[in-house]
Design goal:
The structure holds two protein chains of two kinds.
Chain A (H helix, E strand, L loop, with lengths): L1 E7 L5 H25 L4 H13 L2 H25 L8 H19 L5 H30 L3 H21 L33 H18 L1 H11 L1 H6 L4 H28 L10 H11 L4 H25 L3 H17 L2 H4 E7 L1
Antiparallel strand pairs in A: 1-2
Helix pairs in contact in A: 1-13, 2-12, 3-7, 3-10, 3-11, 3-12, 4-5, 4-6, 4-10, 4-11, 5-6, 5-10, 7-8, 7-12, 11-12, 12-13
Chain B lengths: L1 H34 L10 E4 L9 H14 L4 E4 L7 H9 L4 E4 L5 H10 L4 E5 L8 E6 L1 H15 L4 E6 L4 H17 L4 E6 L6 H13 L4 E4 L5 H8 L3 E6 L10 E7 L2 H12 L7 E4 L6 E3 L8 H15 L9 E2 L5 E3 L7 H5 L8 E2 L6
Classes of the chains: A mainly alpha, B alpha/beta.
């Protein structure tokens, strides 16, 4: 009689992690391939098509970077809080509030100010709006121990309702035949684009913010406090860290970062506020943070990884005429394998004999 | 120490990846010009961008029947379904690289379509239900309100409580126009009947649609009509023994014993027309707004519940509208009692396209600016 047990690894090195991630992606491709075979499509052709259409096409590269930009920020937003073992499920709502803040500035001052003054203003408004949205759950968590998973999640729906209220109401474009969108912003609010493409400068903003967070976590006193308290709140408490203050600072910062993602999306891509503008970026941020094990640099890699998954999926729809549901299924398989096999990074599978 | 060295290695990996990305980007950049050379336009390729799933049984399903109509003529088509409006620019651009005609079939796709049309001057873009045009972008739509008027006549005649419930999708001019025409049709048979509207602010949300259906029935509606895309309200109504009127495509199979008729689109006719025009070079950007006489809009076959004399009455009206009778013919009174159209007057197309009032007999609110 044999049975399996998990034994904790003493060291979980980068090499082990990388090989496990690669193995899990490979597993996903094999399982996905079986599904493709079932519906009568050659999986090799599918994967070849993804590679050629995603990695060897200029437009697809632009798509990848456009998708990566908001994900970098929602990813680091969730990852930052998670370093303190605070679960910010509200990045999506903070994203929406960020779009709201930036849109308010753009609609009111868009025509009057030059790019150099309005873009920083929109940035500020987005940070403020996103932070405020995280402040309430942060205070409740710090002061009364209210579970932030619930509060941040529920705040998402309130944020969406606020956006709907404004775009169906006083912000609605009078020229839109009643369609719920704001007027297009004036061109002074447009983010500069990179290399003559449609990729906006938000990509760099995302990378810079991630590097900043990385620096804060590794090199500053605040970072040490986060690491200690995140590992063991009691240790934090006994070493004299003001945990309540720390929770509020980090969650508010996390909200502000998600707000920036929202601002980048309205000023860099859409140039107006409309319904469903987030496309679930806040929730994808949770997946990214989890995959990256809350490491800031890992967020860069996995934000890009998720962008590949999305853009690649869309290409499969176009090239093979696969239904959207099949694409969702395949994306689900990939995430399931990558997340599911994470356990092998921490634990070793042992087969024992009784 | 282990922690530190591993993060260094991640850093190196990220840098290497970044360099690789940039390298590939530049290589593909130089290849870009070559791929943009279009093959000669003998066989036009057609692509569709849908806002919902092709299996919604309504709006997108109807467009996809139109696409299949083209396929049946041997024309190569592609489609992408369930494209969020906020993400549509990327999808449209993606398709524009390898296609000659792009149909985008949701109002929210209008500006992304316009933007892509500027980037791809050799591709023809046709946007459904909007109003913007450019050198290589036009728009098309059906005078669905004419069919809605006919459906309203059926509902008015079949209602016993004189109250008909309508699931409103988005309170935009298109839907307001449809609800008004429907109400005018109801009142053509029963001048005192009322039409209650509940907005769900979504095109496709079966859960909300079911909720709204239940509320409308609880409020006394004995017929449910929809402006949304799913057939869920019809199924819910059928369970309660309530009659229903479908939207966009024949929904009989979802409520076989309760579905009276549906105001439907038959997109195939206009898609074939546009395709042929683009192919022989006679296409011009403009606004195609086709009515009952073209067959683009109409009613699905009546259910056996609809009495024959009513069927004849509705068919006679269909003939008249096809020959030029206006649905919005004054006098028409607004919900609040003020005058929308004086006797003898009709709305211009522009007024129809930007309609923002409810006619008398509609119970429901419009968002205020």
């Amino acid at each position: 009689m044999y049975y399996f047990t998990f034994e904790k690894r003493l060291h979980s090195s980068f090499k082990i992690r990388t090989s496990i991630t690669l193995t899990s992606i490979l597993t996903a491709l094999i399982i996905g391939g079986i599904f493709f075979l079932i519906i009568g499509i050659n999986p090799i052709a599918v994967y070849k098509s993804v590679v050629t259409n995603v990695f060897f096409n200029t437009y697809a590269w632009e798509d990848l970077f456009l998708k990566t930009s908001p994900l970098l920020l929602t990813g680091i937003s969730v990852a930052l809080a998670a370093n303190l073992k605070i679960w910010n499920i509200g990045a999506d709502g903070q994203f929406y509030m960020g779009t709201l803040g930036a849109t308010w500035v753009a609609l009111n001052y868009g025509g009057a100010l030059s790019s150099t003054s309005i873009i920083p203003l929109m940035f500020l408004a987005a940070v403020l709006a996103g932070s405020l949205w995280a402040l309430l759950p942060a205070l409740f968590r710090a002061q009364f121990g209210v579970n932030e998973i619930i509060t941040t999640l529920l705040m998402n729906y309130i944020a969406i309702s606020w956006v709907d209220y404004l775009i169906f109401g006083s912000w609605r474009d009078p020229k839109s035949n009643n369609f719920p969108v704001t007027p297009e912003f004036s061109e002074s609010t447009y983010l500069p684009t990179l290399l003559n493409s449609s990729v906006h400068a938000g990509l760099l903003v995302g990378v810079v913010i991630i590097l900043l967070i990385y620096f804060i976590l590794k090199k500053t006193k605040l970072g040490v406090q986060i690491t200690i308290t995140g590992d063991n709140p009691d240790a934090g408490l006994y070493s004299g860290i003001n945990i309540k203050r720390l929770i509020v600072i980090i969650l508010v910062l996390s909200g502000g970062i998600a707000g920036v993602a929202g601002m980048l999306e309205v000023t860099g891509v859409q140039h107006r506020l409309q319904q469903n503008i987030s496309l679930g970026y806040g929730y994808t941020g949770i997946i990214i943070a989890w995959l990256a094990r809350n490491h800031p640099l890992g967020v860069i890699f996995y934000a890009f990884f998720m962008a590949v998954v999305f853009v690649g999926g869309e290409n499969l729809q176009i090239v093979f005429g696969l239904p959207k549901a099949m694409i969702d299924l395949f994306q689900g398989i990939i995430l399931f394998c990558v997340l599911g096999m994470e356990i092998f990074a921490e634990y070793r599978l042992k087969i024992k004999r009784v | 120490m282990a922690q530190k060295s591993s993060s260094n290695r991640i850093l190196i990996l990220v840098i290497v990846l970044a360099i690789a990305l940039i390298a590939v980007y530049y290589f593909s950049q130089s290849a870009k010009d070559q791929t943009e050379l279009k093959s000669d336009k003998k066989d036009l390729k057609v692509a569709y961008v849908y806002v919902g799933p092709v299996g919604d049984g309504g709006w997108t399903y109807a467009h996809d029947l139109g696409r299949k109509h083209l396929e049946s003529k041997g024309i190569k088509t592609t489609f992408v379904e369930s494209v969020p409006e906020a993400d549509s620019y990327r999808t449209i651009r993606n398709l524009a690289q390898n296609n000659d005609i792009i149909f985008t079939t949701s109002f929210g796709f209008m500006d992304p379509t316009l933007k892509t049309a500027e980037e791809f001057p050799n591709v023809t873009f046709m946007h459904c239900s909007g109003f913007k045009t450019s050198k290589n972008m036009g728009n098309y739509f059906g005078r669905m309100y004419q069919a809605k008027y006919l459906a309203g006549m059926v509902a008015g005649a079949m209602s016993k409580t004189n109250r008909i419930g309508v699931i409103g999708s988005h309170p935009i001019s298109e839907i307001i126009r449809h609800i008004n025409a429907f109400t005018l049709g109801v009142q053509a048979i029963k001048p005192d009947a009322e039409v209650q509207v509940l907005w769900i602010n979504s095109w496709f949300d079966p859960a909300k649609e079911v909720e709204a259906t239940n509320s409308l029935i609880d409020n006394g509606a004995d017929i449910i009509a929809i402006t949304t895309d799913s057939a869920a309200p019809l199924q819910t109504a059928a369970k309660k023994g309530v009659l229903s009127i479908g939207n966009d495509s024949d929904m009989t199979k979802y409520a076989p014993d309760h579905h009276l008729t549906a105001a439907i689109f038959n997109w195939g006719v206009i898609y074939e027309d546009i395709y042929n025009k683009v192919k022989d070079g006679t296409w011009k950007p403009g606004s195609d707004w086709w009515g009952l006489e073209t067959g683009l809009v109409g009613l699905s076959p009546f259910s056996k519940l609809v009495p024959e004399d009513l069927q004849n009455k509705v068919n006679a009206k269909r003939e008249e509208i096809g020959k030029g009778l206006k649905v919005f013919q004054g006098p028409i009174t607004k919900q609040d009692g003020s005058i929308a159209l004086e006797a003898g007057k009709t709305h211009t197309d522009q007024e129809l396209l930007s309609m923002n009032y409810f006619v008398k007999g509609v119970i429901g609110d419009l968002p205020k600016n």
